[in-house]
Amino acid sequence: MKLSIRTLLLAASVVLTPLWANAAQTEEFTLKNGMKIIVNEDHRAPTVAHMVWYRVGSVDERNGVTGVAHALEHMMFKGTKKLKPGEFSKRVAQLGGRENAFTSKDYTAYFQQIEKSKLEAVMALEADRMANLVFDKNEFAKEIRVVMEERRLRTDDQPTSKLYEALAATTYAVHPYRNPIIGWMDDLQNMTVNDVKAWHDTWYAPNNATMVVSGDVEPKQVFALAQKYFGSYPAKTLTRTRPQNEPPQEGIKRVTVKAPAENPYVVLAFKVPALRDIAKDDDAYALDVLSAVLDGYDNARLSAKLVRTDRVANDVGASYSGIARGPVLFILDGTPAQGTTTEQLEKLLRAEVERIANEGVSEAELKRVKTQLIAAQIYKRDSVFGQAMEIGVMEMSGFSYKDTDRVIEKLRAVTPQQVQAVAQKYFGDDALTVGTLVPLPMTEKKPAAAPAGLRH
User: Fold this and answer.
1) Is 432 helix (H, G, I), strand (E, B) or coil?
2) What is the percent of the chain with per-residue pLDDT over 90, rounded to a whole number?
3) Any catalytic annotation for residue 73?
4) Cα separation of 205 and 190, whole Å?
5) pLDDT band at 139 (very low <50, low <70, confident <90, very high)
6) Is Signal tagged as a keyword (predicted)?
């Protein structure tokens, strides 16, 4: 899961009042064992979002055990020395709350949303499974089958998902982002309970975790509870894998996937810079604004030209997410209309970026794009969970929640010249991987039901 820089702009209030402007609203504290606690006060309703984020995801896996981070996420609900399998979720439900978890390339997170008086109870549950998880081989055998069925349901039986999986494996020659978060099927079939236990024992440590609590709480109370339930756990020595940097790309890469589908589809992935230095990486902000110019509102350039005016595509899109631990991509994609081929749509998508590279964007258009981004927030009510998510993603990606205001200000400062410059600089053949879906006849087979135990 990646957070678009542009999404941070949407998270600000409509008048761009800084989300973290009130110093008393958000506080942070670090336990002696290295666990960071961040508390965001929001007293509008007596509810709390409690999240524990581990800075480990599929990017940290090695070949042969891909999918182990996600498999462990499933096993975290399968019992501790105190709780039977499934009892964690039952207890949260009995408290009137909801809970779940998610694994991304960069991190794994667990959360509960609860009435504020129940915070201590869910914090105790979360602390218990950080240190006291039970790895029963029979429970693992059942759960890994659930994971494999999840893979079939969400990837193997979904043509666009299969294409994006093949695209990542083609785009990246060596970087772990080439592997799917859920793992390759062969790795899942050969995974053992000891693989998952080793992952937990290596990475699930207080000094690799950040707790985020957002809602109707007092920081001092949260800090005291965190110390009570997590403070006694010892820190661990964390050894990150060596950087696996991509070699230079020399020419366009292409991958084709044939699968039963109703329509053809094409996706163009350009290697572009990520946001690393908030003060200096102006190109990252300009790329985010470029994606908004192309596909950031109802009448943005791609849809207006290719769908509504020329009618050469049924749908088109552009996206960029610069906040990540690893390399990032700028995506152009679309479904060609009847009479248009994927090859033609590929050229038409690139032509729209080239038009910006040649002609630029006007101040009026740029202002309109930014206004649309801000106006979207008028009808969007922020939530304590949304605030906790934003804090967690920033922290896991190597930034601080305090950087949010600076990011917003940098986005506001992007000029037409900067947008034109990145359109000229980053969209050549040597940065491009093209994925094409070739549709095969649809079968009469009905979609499979979601597997029991599917968590997210």
Assistant:
1) strand
2) 82
3) yes
4) 26
5) very high
6) yes
Q: Which value, to the nearest 10 degrees, does the dihedral of the CA atoms of residues 64, 69, 70, 74 take?
A: 120
Asked if residue 407 lies in contact with residue 5, where contact means CB atoms within 8 angstroms, the answer is yes
Radius of gyration of the chain from its Cα atoms, rounded to whole angstroms: 23
Q: Based on the structure, what is the number of domains in the chain?
A: 2
User: How far is it, in rounded angstroms, from Cα 456 to Cα 453?
Assistant: 9
Co-location of 72 and 220 in the same domain: yes
Domain-embedded: residue 452:
no
Three-state DSSP string of 364-420: HHHHHHHHHHHHHHHHCCCCHHHHHHHHHHHHHCCCCHHHHHHHHHHHHCCCHHHHH
Domain that holds residue 130: 5-230
Residue 239 CB neighbour total at 10 angstroms: 7
Q: Using 50, 70 and 90 to split pLDDT, how confident is the model at 407?
A: confident
Closest residue by Cα to residue 306 from 272, 348, 253, 276? 348
Instruction: Indicate which residue of 73, 99, 139, 143 is catalytic.
Output: 73
- Quote the tokens at residue 285: 């902000």
CA distances from residue 131 to 31, 101, 230, 231 in whole angstroms, order as listed: 16, 17, 9, 12
Half-sphere exposure of 286 (CA within 13 A, CB side): 22
- Provide the pLDDT for residue 432: 98
| List of residues 6+ apart from 252 with CB closer than 8 A | 429, 430, 432, 433, 434
Any idea how long the chain is?
456
For residue 17, the tally of other CB atoms under 10 A from its CB is 10
Are 257 and 213 found together in one domain?
Answer: no
Nearest by Cα to 249 from 429, 424, 434: 429
